[in-house]
Amino acid sequence: MTEVKLAVLGGSGAGKSALAVRFLTRRFIGEYASNAECIYTKHLCLDGRQIHLEIYDPCSQPQRGKLCLTDELHWADGFIVVYDISDRASFAFAKALLYRIRESHIGACKKMAESSVFLVGNKQDLCHMREVGWDEGQKLAIDNRCQFCELSAAEHCQEVVAMFTKVLRAITSNFRVKEKRRPSGSKSMAKLINNVFGKRRKSV
Ligand SMILES: Nc1nc2c(ncn2[C@@H]2O[C@H](COP(=O)(O)OP(=O)(O)OP(=O)(O)O)[C@@H](O)[C@H]2O)c(=O)[nH]1
């Protein structure tokens, strides 16, 4: 069983919970409690490999008053950074998040770290209220060497599943590279740090 930890980050109301729940249940639920962070867990099979997935969905970052991501950056194997295409402030927040993630990966194998970060422009169904162009999202992704797509958690079930699947594939293929490099039995610092943090868990 491979353990994968994925953090879904983004500004308040960007659609983090909607995306996670859409992937896990294939359903879109209109409203979610936004005052609590949680970790969803799910077992799934990807390319014949059994995966125990944990998805971290934080409460709204701005309410914390600062961009303090130290725990998340250590905990996660990969990141989905979400913004709302109809909200420019959420795009600026996504930009700051990507910068923090990139900063934290300095020293790690660059190519491996980059492939497990996905920038997502959510709420594509609201394109009549668009404040952030597709090309701006694409450019931000290129600048940060991460994957990019626009979609709608509300309307695009297949696209959401495909996006999560791509991130999971990138993460598991990074694991395979790391397994080859690292002597067996050694534990990563991230795993050790993870044992210290107790986050609320939900099974879906
Ligand atoms: N039109 C539209 N609304 C969406 C979409 N995704 C999410 N929403 C709505 O946007 C609002 C915020 O969605 P959440 O999933 O709670 O966003 P969040 O990023 O988890 O929000 P916080 O927990 O407050 O940080 C809710 O009213 C959702 O129904 C989408 O693709 N299209």
Automatic annotation (TrEMBL):
GO terms for molecular function: G protein activity; GTP binding. Gene3D superfamilies: P-loop containing nucleotide triphosphate hydrolases. InterPro entries: P-loop_NTPase (IPR027417), Ras-related_GTPase (IPR051065), Small_GTPase (IPR001806). The keyword Iron does not apply. Its EC number is 3.6.5.2. The keyword Hydrolase applies. This is small monomeric GTPase. It comes from Amazona collaria (yellow-billed parrot).
